[in-house]
Amino acid sequence: MKNLVIIGAGGMGRTIFSNAIESIGYSESFVIKGFIDDNLAALEGYPNYPPVIGTIRDYQPESNDVFVSSIGGLARRPCMEEIINRGGEFIGLIHKTARIQTNAKLGKGNFIGAYTVIGNDAVVGDYNMIQAYTVIGHDAIIGNWNRIDTHVTCVGGVIVEDNVNIHTSAVISHKVVVENGAHVGALSFVIKKVKAGTTVMGIPAKKLM
User: Do 161 and 97 fall into the same domain?
Assistant: First the structure.
């Protein structure tokens, strides 16, 4: 039995806790050990959660520990790599209501939230956070280290490269490419390539100056 450690005890960390107890494998292959957060008092005033058992900067993974990260944005990858470099392993955490369709492929360390759909023949790389009610369409390719928020739709054939943030309720249209390090604003409709490192938003989405 593995012991799941949740990185970050803020609002998203508490959300991932609830997802974890409703995920495939809970109480069969893993239980929840607690949180790590550089604010050791992060859960004060929030009952019914396991404890904060250490800080992110100092926690040393133990032999049966596995990890999931609630942290998004620019801090997501460096924070996770700190744990990986100390020997920590990130598991795939998939909510029981998620639908993984025929021939879809998932890499390691992905969080797949409630009622999310990973479409037929889609490919999802490693260490992505794909939140509740999001649709990754057929034949889409999702790279590594991406944060895709709730109610996002990536239509069939979309390519999302690495280190991308796509915010709530955005729609990425058919076969659009979102390049490395890009940001897509909430409620945006993206109909053409988003270039690396840029931020777009609006309907249709346009680059912010």
Answer: yes
